[in-house]
Design a protein that fits this description.
The protein has 313 residues and is mainly β. It is 4% helix and 50% strand. The strands form 4 sheets. Strands 2, 14, 15, 16, 17, 18, 19, 20, 21 and 22 form a 10-stranded antiparallel β-sheet that branches. Strand 14 and strand 15 form a beta hairpin. The longest helix is centred in the C-terminal third of the chain and has 13 residues. InterPro entries: Pirin, Pirin_C_dom, Pirin_N_dom, RmlC-like_jellyroll, RmlC_Cupin_sf.
Length: 313
């Protein structure tokens, strides 16, 4: 999914150590993708107060609502896009030749590396899910672009119907087959009554409620905000107030400063200028075949130099 904002803000992150345990509710902002009749999402990364959780640098949650997703071909650099659905179907096409329908419980993972373009479409119907980005570290940000689809992910189940699906990285002894480049956790958690999960004390974590309501570490979480939990925790305890579905994000605090503007992740103002120029010139991102419509134009860069501002606002 694209950042369709035509006046995107500069986001520069990284270069700070792991915090201790926290309980910080981060309120997102509503963003309409593709115009006033298009799909509305809640963006909680980057947001006021925090730009990253580990290498996770972008989080849009949407639905459940009747909507049409139609995101024209657009570019990405220096990141992985992670597409996760609870309800509905979305067709992905990209410039390395991939064409894949994603369904609930499956993972579409696109690694942009030095540059890729893709589109996303759905028919009218109920859509519910999340779109996330993971920043690529070091020289991996220039990796060859590629796409993965994983329909069979590891699942840990409880007798009451609770379950944990490991989408990215590792959790509770289960490891996703998806390729990662930093220590990472991404998991969907369905809680019917209560459960506890082991955490790594060297990783920082956050959770977002997709549906339901639950008590987490003594506080109540409902759909909307992202709950930042920090690092230094040995376990995560969740007690459902009603059947609930959450996403758990975790990772080693990202030590590199990154500049994130529109759909690009780079390391400097000059990186972003070059990415934008290449996209507008039709160079280096390839062609998305099969989409009925024009590609997105890049927004105009701000009149100031994009500068580092740290992991926290």
């Amino acid at each position: 999914m694209s950042n369709l904002d035509q006046e995107p803000q500069e986001d520069v992150c990284g270069a700070e150590g792991a915090p201790g345990p926290a309980f910080e509710l981060l309120t997102g902002r509503d963003v309409v993708l593709g115009g006033p009749r298009a799909m509305r999402v809640t963006r909680t990364l980057p947001t006021r107060g925090r730009r990253m959780v580990g290498a996770w640098c972008f989080l849009d949650a949407y639905g459940p609502e009747e909507a049409v997703m139609r995101v024209p071909p657009h570019p990405h650099t220096g990141l992985q896009t992670v597409s996760w659905l609870v309800e509905g179907e979305v067709l992905h096409r990209d410039s390395v030749g991939s064409e894949q329908v994603i369904k609930p419980g499956q993972l579409n993972l696109m690694t942009s590396g030095r540059g890729i373009a893709h589109s996303e479409e759905s028919g009218r119907g109920v859509l519910h899910g999340a779109q996330l980005w993971v920043a690529l570290p070091g020289d991996h940000r220039f990796a060859g672009p590629h796409f993965e689809h994983h329909a069979d992910l590891p699942v840990l189940e409880w007798p009451d119907g609770s379950a944990v699906t490991v989408i990215m990285g590792e959790l509770a002894g289960l490891t996703s087959p998806a390729q990662t480049y930093t220590p990472l956790t991404g998991a969907e958690i369905v809680v019917i009554s209560s459960l506890s999960l082991p955490l790594r004390t060297d990783l920082e974590y956050a959770v977002i409620m997709l549906s339901g309501a639950a008590e987490i570490e003594g506080g109540t979480l409902e759909p909307g905000p992202l709950l930042y939990l920090g690092a230094g925790r040995e376990e995560l305890s969740i007690r459902a107030l009603e059947p609930s579905r959450l996403l758990l994000l975790g990772g080693e605090p990202f030590q590199e400063e990154i500049v994130m503007w529109w759909n690009f992740v780079g390391r400097s103002h000059e990186d972003i200028v070059k990415f934008r120029e290449d996209w507008e010139a039709g160079h280096g991102f390839g062609e998305v075949r099969g989409f009925d419509g024009a590609s997105l134009r890049a927004p105009v860069l701000p009149g100031t130099t994009l500068k580092p501002r740290g992991r926290e606002r």
